[in-house]
Amino acid sequence: MTMGKPDLPGSQPPDVPHVPVLLDEVVAALSSLAGRRVVDGTFGAGGYSRALLAAGADVVAIDRDPTVRVHADRLAEEFPGRFQFVTGTFSKLDILAQEFGPIGGVVLDIGVSSMQLDQSERGFSFMREGPLDMRMSQSGEGAADLVNELEQDALANLLYAFGEERKSRRIAQFIVAAREQAPITTTLELARVVEKAIGRKPGDAHPATRTFQALRIAVNGEFEQLVEGLFAAERLLGEGGVLAVVSFHSLEDRIVKRFFDPDKGGPAQSRHLPQVKINPRRWDPVSKAVKPGAAELDRNPRARSSVLRSGIRTAEPAREPVYDQLGVPVVRGAS
């Protein structure tokens, strides 16, 4: 039996507030895993888990957001004995999933979900008034702490490294000036400061887009989580196991691409010089990048920047995590 497009009983309920992107493509990447157990390391509202269950796989789901429990309980009732939910971070998925027996595949959907963006009290969106929070786990340091406490240079470096914001120094200057008058505590306050700093052209994305992205990544340690999660999947999966990763911007995709194929894109070797040792392949074959088609973009505009990459685990032993080879941005002065 192979997994295909989920049939009606496994379709996403209409009241679930998040539409998973590249769903058919993710299921296709894991098509050999019917009857085996798959880890959904970023459960969210359960879209991937539901599709995988409907297609014949058993699922162990992981999420650090306590508000997703209601969706997990629903799936546990619909698929008794085939679905388990564990609270935690996907960076530790090998530890969290080991008690459930052999794992055949892992799927990761990196980034913030639609339901988090749409909950103004979570503070992820520059389009909705709410506290400047952005904590996925709802614990620890929030975005307001960074905005109001980081020195100007450190804040600028953070916005540039994590948000690829070319006007980071001007934005940081305006933020520091604004917070000297009063702390910046809400999403719309920060959005207004950024818009004042760099302006807004009709038809362009909101000027605060990259600033909010950078703060969210920093607050939740998303790049560290991603790297640790990728290598955790490498440790967890045996030969033939499948890892599928959906990312949403170029920095994440670069990390995933280099993880799957660290030697690709390196300098060509000359037969007249000593040969550079090529690392044994831990993933082979590795898929080409898969992006959403026009029909999906019409249904869900938030899918526009998503990219799916997947690979099949070889018998080579797992590596130790490496950051410098994966293109992980470094923020100077923000620690």
Automatic annotation (TrEMBL):
Q: A biological process (GO) annotation for this entry?
A: rRNA base methylation
List its EC numbers: 2.1.1.199
Q: Which reaction does it catalyse?
A: cytidine(1402) in 16S rRNA + S-adenosyl-L-methionine = N(4)-methylcytidine(1402) in 16S rRNA + S-adenosyl-L-homocysteine + H(+)
InterPro entries cross-referenced by the UniProt entry: RsmH (IPR002903), SAM-dep_MeTrfase_MraW_recog (IPR023397), SAM-dependent_MTases_sf (IPR029063)
Binding locations of S-adenosyl-L-methionine? 46-48, 63, 90, 109, 116
Asked if Signal is a keyword of the record, the answer is no
A molecular function (GO) term: rRNA (cytosine-N4-)-methyltransferase activity
Q: Where is this region: Disordered?
A: 290-312
The main location class comes to: cytoplasm
Task: State a GO cellular component annotated for this protein.
Answer: cytoplasm
Spell out the subcellular localization from the entry: Cytoplasm
What family does this belong to? Belongs to the methyltransferase superfamily. RsmH family.
The job of this chain, per UniProt, is described as: Specifically methylates the N4 position of cytidine in position 1402 (C1402) of 16S rRNA.
Name of the molecule in the record:
Ribosomal RNA small subunit methyltransferase H
Species of origin reads: Devosia crocina
Q: Which gene encodes it?
A: rsmH
